[in-house]
Design a protein that fits this description.
Blueprint lengths: L6 E5 L4 H12 L3 E6 L2 H11 L5 E5 L5 H15 L4 E4 L16 H28 L3 E5 L12 H21 L4 E7 L20 H5 L9 H12 L10 E4 L11
Parallel strand pairs: 1-2, 1-4, 2-3, 4-5, 5-6, 6-7
């Protein structure tokens, strides 16, 4: 099929996995809206990727309902349709504090961005996606299935994303398919905004922890997402796909 004229919104598309998704979509011919709270990252990515196709950065706070509503309205006004929504925007636990020291404010902030943001974007995009038999992809994490210490807020938010995915798939089908990706260790060092960009510092041991023999790259996620939005994946909905180089399947004995 031709993707020319089809429109995708990628939240958190200014850096990391979101940026790789935006690039993949542009290369395949989609029009892309980058919804990004970091204005510096959004403008940099817009300038860098715009030669590849139709791309626009819209400053968006996914945890704010008015901001999300504005994003959807601006997208419809400028491009006239929405075919794909990628709920990717998220923040990691910034402090990794023990739960006895984790503030309610920090807990709520993480959930409002990582989980409520996906709810809000979906809520406002659904009427447009229905018109076009559209697709939603939510980005969770292997932290929904396994954890390091002191990551309660992030893990809970990503577990919520997995559950939200299958709930939405049942509520919105058959007009809209909804699936979820749970990335493992993906090195985004070279996909950050210029001020934070750096050369990857990965060791042999880092790679050897993965049965595939290497740490993941953002392109690994972007390419699979493109498959999931395609007609070839039309029988897939409500699923969570763990893309982690097999790391969550590897038993470790110390």
């Amino acid at each position: 099929m031709s993707w020319r004229g089809k429109v995708a919104i990628v939240t958190g598309g200014g850096q990391g996995i979101g940026k790789a998704i935006a690039k993949q979509f542009l290369q395949e011919g989609l029009c892309v809206i980058i919804a990004e709270i970091d204005e510096e990252a959004g403008k940099e990515t817009e300038a860098e990727l715009k030669p590849l196709g139709s791309l626009r950065f819209i400053h968006t706070d996914v945890s704010d309902e008015k901001s999300v509503n504005s994003l959807i309205q601006e997208t419809d006004t400028s491009l006239g349709r929405i075919d794909v929504l990628i709920n990717n925007a998220a923040r990691a636990d910034p402090e990794n504090l023990p739960i006895t020291e984790l503030s309610l404010e920090s807990w709520n902030n993480t959930l409002s961005i990582n989980l409520t943001g996906a709810f809000l974007c979906t809520k406002y995009a659904v009427p447009y996606l229905r018109k076009n038999q559209g697709t939603i992809i939510n980005i969770a994490s292997t932290r929904a299935l396994m954890s390091e210490p002191n990551t309660e807020a992030y893990s809970a938010s990503k577990g919520g994303i997995v559950a939200l995915t299958h709930a939405l798939a049942i509520s919105l089908g058959p007009e809209i398919r909804v699936n979820c990706i749970s990335p493992g260790w993906i090195d985004v060092s070279e996909w950050k905004k210029q001020a934070n960009r750096k050369t990857p510092q990965l060791t042999k041991q880092d790679h050897q922890q993965h049965p595939t023999g290497r740490v993941g790259q953002p392109e690994d996620i972007a390419s699979f997402i493109f498959y999931l939005i395609s007609p070839e994946a039309s029988f897939i909905t409500g699923a969570n796909f763990v893309i982690d180089g097999g790391m969550t399947k590897k038993m470790i004995y110390l």
